[in-house]
Design brief:
Length: about 900
């Protein structure tokens, strides 16, 4: 298979790339694993005083207490929106009920989308009903007066090429849908009714409480969730962080009648037009879109203009003299140092804290990361801001250090080095080029916004959320730093606030011991200790006197782009892919299109001698790639900071894939420097041992035994062998001329390296004759759950785009029915998924369910029963609509005959 064909297939069928495929999820921060809901033992009869919303209007019970709200000044409705170069048309409107909307008309759209954000999140949960905002998010999808079917909106969207989802965060809740453009009007009607007359029925309360509880159970083994909740648990009493945002049966399920009444109360209090921001995109013109929005959304209850709650944001939030040590359930150990500084919510457009984030997370020579890696204390260092949302309660800045074994033993010394670097930054007057580089990258992304791969749902989600934070004029541009002013005095103010008094230190430890000081976080039952930081270190951090000579400011980024950033309007160079380089050493293809350039290369290297240990060869190949990525870390970081992307993947023992994505301005520079490193870098003993340790974090006993036995000489011989004979095949795609592609290809000409013989290059396997196979069952278990995965083989691989598109369509049909039947109706698990299964031998799909309550055998029977019922529907579908498609004929002839007869 040529690399061009592989590239096109991945572009046409993104589910082939596991990184691009996402099973249905309910919350933005949810981890993609599966878990289960046991069925209810009995029905709960609700009190007569609760009015069924299907028959009566929702009545707002009296509030126990009022939340103080402060008005936000809004831009006038006629404000012009700052736009990038675009073929789309934008319009801002405000309805009489206070809801604001941005309409986007795209006549070329193949998919429509809508998003609605509400200014209410987990910080506003009632104290007695933690998780209420998230629970209500679930409930609103379960029918309305006009469309009472519990799964009606999901069924309609699935039948019209779309889907729906939602997420709840600290200060907002967002809902969105996608649909075929021709069905957008009907979809908006259904969508609006969720916020006008939701049923919020008594019979649905317990079912969705099970769903929310299962989502909570799903996260128990994930350290990121456990650490987040530990930070909430140890925060100051009364602070908004000191809560539980997901919800569970314990926090929500004390009484079903009370829960429903509180849900109704919460909906009526906050789901008001003045607290809502809406965005929609489709191929209809702006006047039509406006008429639809006014027709369907004007009946949302009128409410207060957009508001920001006033919270007690005084600092510190945590005890700054404590080190919190969390028991790790996952592999890597890390050290987090977090500072919470006063809220910058009202100056969000400036976002000058990125100055510190850019420098603290830098990886070039002299940086904190390079220094700690050279000392053998860290695998990597990452700096972030806004983990808690750049919200009204404060702005967080955090440094995470992935620790080596040596680093774990020297945690306080690492914090000392962090404060040394901060002293270096304080003593160095803020340098404007740091912000200018950041702004340049954002400006290039803004100018190329219309040419990027931004999906319609990403566009409307961004617009509806940004309306909560920016004035309308900057709703699209504000996120790209268009209004960021150079304010060195503000940067200096932020740096002065990164002190031990505003600090929190968390350590995730695999060597956690059950000491006498061990405590239990009550939500996730996480084991942790709170240790007092030695006073000598606190004094040292308060008064850093010395900065190590190896630490210094980074140089300017050589990959930063120069304006103009727009794609070029050049003559189209042919309608099809063309072969531009064909030599014994390499074969390069080219396809011009007005999109950001992509360059993909497959590097075939000399395979190891036949008869060797394939396990050993593959492990050494992984070790080689990890060492190469470690060597390339500065190039990858600088390229990413400039808006470029570099990918390096080990496909097999003798094949590597190298990918580049970004502007043609710096594409050649990236390719040349990466290729130079590929041939010139030599691993050292120190880095080899560090990378072996990193790989060992997630290795089994056999891999650990092999890794520990590899010497530097072993790896050097392996690398020498890989470089001895090479063949390349590649594709240039996008805004790149043939002359430019040929020029970049010249970088690959390496004198003295013989070409790999054709018979040693990785060859595509022969197509296999399709043979129907029974369902393949795989059962396994993690610490909490039973997991059942059933694979259905439905056909052989096809080179026809139509056939592969039909398989993609089939899976999109199935996944919604899998989710609703096995998760919502039968309550087997919260995260139930259907994903493609694609190999050279054939194609099909996997159905996977994870459960803490049911045996694998029970899960298998329920999956098998579902597929049996699915078969009747598929027969009608295939015969009626897809009788001419080869792959669907294979599915009809084979899948339907064996899936339910297999035991």
């Amino acid at each position: 298979m040529t690399i061009y064909r592989k590239f096109i297939e991945r572009k046409l069928h993104p589910w082939r790339n596991k990184k691009l495929y996402r099973p249905r999820k309910r919350r933005r921060r949810r981890i993609n694993e599966d878990i289960v809901l046991p069925p209810a033992d009995e029905d709960i009869v609700l009190a007569d005083t609760v009015l069924p919303p299907g028959d009566e209007d929702i009545v707002l019970p009296p509030a126990d207490e009022d939340i103080v709200l402060a008005p936000v000044v809004l831009a006038p409705a006629s404000a012009d929106i700052v736009l990038p170069p675009t073929t789309k048309e934008y319009r801002h409107i405000r309805l009489e009920n206070g809801m604001e909307a941005i309409l986007v008309s795209d006549p070329m759209a193949t998919k429509a989308a809508a998003s609605l954000s509400v200014r209410v999140g987990s910080y506003l949960d009632p104290v007695e009903f933690q998780g209420m905002a998230h629970f209500l998010e679930h409930m609103l999808f379960l029918g309305s007066k006009k469309f009472p079917g519990e799964n009606q909106i999901f069924n309609f969207l699935a039948e019209n090429g779309g889907s729906a989802n939602a997420s709840t965060v600290n200060m907002s809740t967002q809902y969105y849908l996608t649909v075929h453009p021709d069905s957008l009007r009907e979809a908006l009607d259904m969508f609006s009714q969720m916020f006008i007359s939701p049923l919020l029925e008594s019979k649905s309360v317990e079912k969705e409480l099970d769903a929310v509880n299962a989502e909570f159970e799903l996260n128990k083994d994930h350290d990121s969730w456990r650490l987040s909740q530990l930070m909430a648990h140890t925060a100051r009493d009364g602070h908004p962080i000191h809560g539980f945002m997901i919800g569970s049966k314990t926090s929500l399920g004390k009484n079903m009648t009370d829960l429903r009444m509180e849900t109704v109360k919460f909906f009526n209090k906050f789901y008001l037009g003045g607290l809502m921001k809406f965005s929609v995109t489709g191929k209809a013109n702006l006047d039509v879109l406006e008429s639809w929005v006014k027709l369907f959304f004007s009946d949302i209850k009128e409410g207060t203009t957009c508001v920001v709650p006033e919270f007690d944001a005084s600092l510190p939030i945590w005890n700054p003299r404590s080190l919190y040590v969390l028991e790790a359930r996952e592999y890597f150990q890390f050290l987090d140092v977090t500072w919470m500084i006063p809220s910058r919510f009202h100056s969000r457009s400036r976002r000058l804290e990125v100055y510190l984030v850019q420098l603290l997370g830098h990886v070039s020579k002299g940086s904190l990361s390079a220094f700690l890696k050279k000392q053998g204390l860290a695998f990597s260092v990452e700096a972030t801001s806004g983990v808690f949302g750049d919200s009204v309660i404060g702005t967080d800045i955090s440094v995470r250090v992935d620790l080596t074994r040596s680093g774990f033993e020297k945690k306080y010394e690492i914090v000392t080095y962090i404060y040394q670097y901060l002293k270096l930054l304080r003593d160095t007057p803020p340098e404007e080029w740091v912000i200018e580089e950041y702004q340049t990258t954002l400006r290039s992304q803004f100018d190329l916004f219309d040419s990027s791969d931004t999906a319609p749902e990403e566009l409307v989600n961004s617009l509806s959320e940004n309306m909560l934070h920016y004035e309308i004029r900057n709703v699209l541009s504000g996120h790209y730093g268009m209004n960021m002013e150079w304010k060195p005095e503000e940067i200096q103010e932020v740096m002065e606030q990164l002190t031990p008094i505003n600090m929190r230190i968390d350590l995730k430890s695999r060597s956690f011991s059950l000491s006498t000081g061990c405590r239990i976080e009550p939500i996730y039952n996480s084991l942790y200790t709170e240790e007092e930081i030695p006073q000598e270190f606190l004094n040292q951090w308060e008064n850093i006197q010395h900065v190590d000579d190896a630490l210094h400011m980074p140089s300017k980024n050589r990959y930063t782009l120069s304006p103009p950033f727009l794609l070029r309007d050049v003559t189209f160079e042919g309608e099809d892919v063309s072969l531009i380089v064909d030599t014994p050493f390499m074969k390069m293809w080219h396809k011009h299109k007005k999109v950001l350039p992509v360059a993909k290369f497959c590097i075939f290297t000399k395979p190891m001698e036949s008869g060797g240990d394939s396990f050993d060869r593959d492990l050494k190949s992984r070790l080689f790639v990890d060492l190469l990525e470690d060597e390339l870390s500065e190039i990858i970081f600088l390229a990413k900071s400039a808006g470029m992307k570099i990918d390096l993947t080990s496909v097999s023992d003798n094949r590597l894939e190298l990918g580049f994505h970004g502007s043609i301005q710096k594409l050649g520079l990236c390719v040349s420097q990466v290729w130079e490193k590929f041939f010139d870098f030599q691993p050292t003993v120190d880095r080899l041992e560090i990378i072996k340790e990193k790989m060992g974090e997630n290795a089994d006993e056999q891999q650990m035994e092999r890794l520990s036995g590899y010497s530097l000489n072993d790896l050097q011989n392996y690398i020498r062998h890989k470089r001895s004979q090479i063949y390349l095949e590649g594709l240039y795609f996008g805004d790149i001329l043939i002359s430019e592609a040929k020029s970049i290809s010249n970088f690959f000409k390496t004198p003295g390296i013989p070409s790999l013989p054709e018979n040693l290059r990785d060859k595509e396997e022969e197509k296999k004759q399709f043979v129907a196979k029974p369902a393949q069952k795989v059962f396994y278990k993690n610490k909490i759950n039973n997991i059942a995965k059933v694979s259905y083989h439905v056909g052989c691989q096809s080179d026809e785009v139509k056939d592969m598109a039909m398989l993609n369509l089939l899976i999109s049909f199935i996944e919604d029915r899998v989710y609703y039947t096995l998760r919502t109706e039968e309550r087997l698990g919260y995260s139930v998924c259907c994903v493609p299964n694609l190999t050279y031998a054939g194609v099909g799909f996997d159905i996977k369910v994870t459960s803490p309550a049911y045996s694998p055998d029970h899960l298998w029977k329920r999956i098998r029963n579902f597929v049996k019922r699915l078969g009747n529907w598929l027969v009608c579908l295939f015969n009626r609509n897809y009788s001419s498609c080869l792959l669907f004929n294979i599915i009809r002839d084979h899948l339907l005959s064996f899936t339910w007869s297999y035991t």
